[in-house]
């Protein structure tokens, strides 16, 4: 890998003097290897996680509430670890090597998971199908493998989407338009992998065995590594720009050191590198000054004491771009926070939806449908909606809005938040109808209530539709609005909404179980769900989703998109229109 051949001295990708290199690398030529990596990795992840709550319940012999919390906590960790991977990518390793190293860790975790479910002595002892017992040692090995996978995920998730988008040059209008489509097809590839996982892999786990059920995803992850390395010669690279956390701390410290210093009326007097010079931060364009969060501008006010022996002390004086980096991250936080409840709703597909299905008729003729395989309809919805959105909805909406992408990124995200409310209402209606059948026919002690599991299809399809709007909009929004040298970190920040959504789900289950089981009551989430009130839990999430949408409207209305300075023309380039 001759990475030095395509770097400028500041670490950014620059092909202006090497047109032959630009034609040979990047764009859609490099993307199939990145999309193939993501498709295979997601097949591995969902092949393992989709049915995980049932593995906890049936193989490790855990109660419903415990299994639900363990699944939520692990899923949450998978989406917190990207903060570590993003920090390493932006600061030291770069996105390429971060993906490569953590992918190998991921393969080790999947291999250990397969061994723990297939090797006698390590796998749980089963007395009959789905009635097993695991020792503390067996459970420990299984959880070590699970959290190795979580660590591996942490290096891949924040980097792959950003690395794919890096293959398109923001300064080239044609490539920039292709980048907007990349996020749609990136999410499409995720769901192709999820489709195989929620159908074939779930069937293998239920009907053949968990050893094979985890072994096939392990092979898929190995293929993901092969796919990624296969595109090495076609990728465009970007050097890490140094620790973003250090730069953020420098701005905070310098601002508080100068809290008594008055800001100049002319903001052009604030410290920045010369107009013709590159940004002082490797891999980053300069950012235009904004009038928000003006306190931090004090970090860029020049004082004689800021220089020491002719050199600038970065803990006393920061550039405008460095200050605007911090402002950009702070401005993202309110939008980020409104994604948490949506992720809580999304988490129910591998959680409460599956538990709900265990008390429904899962037969299609003579065939039994695995409960977790219903998530295939979420995947089908995404696969259908991505091309519809990209090829039909954008041109149609553009006629009314005049926006090049039809909807702005925030409008797209808000639409998904509204749609998610109906998913929870649909799930609640299904549960009310199911409990009505239980009461009328006294089916309290049977798990095979004569109501087809296919009544769950609408709630899965609605979640899938909401994903296309909110999750893809979120991917694009956090990439575009992130400072150039902090894109992995901001991608990781967006992923933490999924983590916190899982933790919120676990917290809600704990609170609801504690309150609803008082005085000997079975509670909303009972071990025998025929005596529970799971629809109350779904309606609670619907109410929280409505409140969350209004909070989103309030913060989105005040958000102003970032403006980067084109180093060739010194013109300000907005990432999007509000």
From TrEMBL:
SUPFAM superfamilies: MFS general substrate transporter (SSF103473). InterPro entries: MFS_trans_sf, POT_fam, PTR2_symporter_CS. GO terms for molecular function: transmembrane transporter activity. It is a multi-pass membrane protein. Its main location: membrane. One of its GO terms (biological process) is oligopeptide transport. The chain crosses the membrane at residues 96-115, 185-204, 210-229, 332-354, 374-394, 415-437, 457-479, 491-515, 535-556. GO terms for cellular component: membrane. The keyword Lipid biosynthesis does not apply. Keywords: Membrane, Transmembrane, Transmembrane helix, Transport. It is found in: Membrane. Belongs to the major facilitator superfamily. Proton-dependent oligopeptide transporter (POT/PTR) (TC 2.A.17) family. This is Protein NRT1/ PTR FAMILY 8.1-like.
